[in-house]
Write a structure and sequence with these properties.
By secondary structure, the chain is mainly α. It has two domains: 9-88; 95-158. The protein is built from five helices and two strands. The protein has helices at 9-46, 49-88, 108-114, 127-136, 144-154, and strands spanning 95-97, 103-106. A hairpin with a 5-residue loop joins β1 and β2 (103-106).
Length: 171
């Protein structure tokens, strides 16, 4: 049950390009419907050849860009899903929180280890809230506020490195 922006993010990045391609297509269809082929040919015959060539070039470039964006979104979503499947099938529990201690992503094993229902692990859920639920269920000892404060103190110094917080220290 991986959660997070791994699958949705590509669509946001490429959405403008895809939308521009769709709008351009819609305008082209509307032009054919309203003017008909004869009307479009008449308009194009009255324009200088360089203007027609430039217009067609721009339209072809936008169409190519929109199609490339659709392929890129599809590829990134597929890669994101594959990564999430790999993370979800790890034997270790894994979670990632942002700088405000809100859940970004977690895997199924992390949820199982917490002994809480999966609905407690939605993206954006504060770590403090997860710890309060765990404490109420008897699966966390300590003060959630102190734990979160300690995690936030350590994390700015560990950018790009793995940080481990656990209840039990290794032997």
């Amino acid at each position: 049950m991986p959660q997070g922006p791994a699958v949705a993010e590509p669509a946001r990045r490429w959405g403008v390009i895809v939308a521009a391609g769709a709008i351009g297509f819609a305008i082209g269809v509307a032009g054919f419907v309203w003017l008909g082929l004869d009307g479009i040919v008449r308009i194009l015959n009255n324009l200088p050849a360089i203007a027609v060539a430039a217009g067609v070039s721009v339209l072809l470039a936008l169409a190519t860009l929109a199609i490339a964006a659709l392929f890129a979104v599809s590829r990134e979503r597929r890669n994101g899903r594959a990564a999430m499947v790999a993370i979800d099938n790890m034997t270790q529990g894994l979670s990632m929180f942002d700088g405000a201690a809100r859940l970004i992503v977690c895997n199924r094993r992390y949820v199982e280890m917490s002994r809480l229902p999966p609905e407690n692990f939605r993206p954006g859920t504060p770590l403090r809230e997860i710890l309060i639920h765990r404490a109420a269920a008897g699966h966390f000892e300590g003060d959630p506020d102190q734990y979160v404060a300690a995690a936030l103190r350590v994390c700015p110094d560990t950018l790009g490195r793995i940080t481990k917080f656990s209840k039990h220290e290794p032997n």
